[in-house]
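Record type: monomer structure entry
Structure origin: computed from sequence
Chain ID: A
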Amino acid sequence: MPKLTVDGVGTFEVPADKRLVNALVDDCGVDQLHACGGVARCTTCRVEFVAGEPARMTKAEKDVLAAKGLAGTPGLRLSCQITCDADMTVKAISRLAGSGRADAGRRPADTMEPAPEWA
């Protein structure tokens, strides 16, 4: 099982291939935002990688980061477009607490949406 370390929260074993957004909430107890429901539209699920950033990126993630003016920001990724397939360390930078939102968003599906097309 991969280890997911969340800066300031702890280190957790998470099921292999679980979506990072769901692992943050389910396994790490982080109040991670995911306003669009994990379909790569809003960027509220963004995290900052400290270590173990995946080399590949979905086309949906690449496109939405570019549209929001966030492309090329070192370590900034969408947790809804990443699966936990290796050890990683992240900072949870988009959380419900302090956001002013009523809730974090509808729970993202267990499988990646949209179906991954690799950029």
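Annotation 1: The helical segments are 20-26, 59-67.
Annotation 2: The chain has a mean pLDDT of 97.
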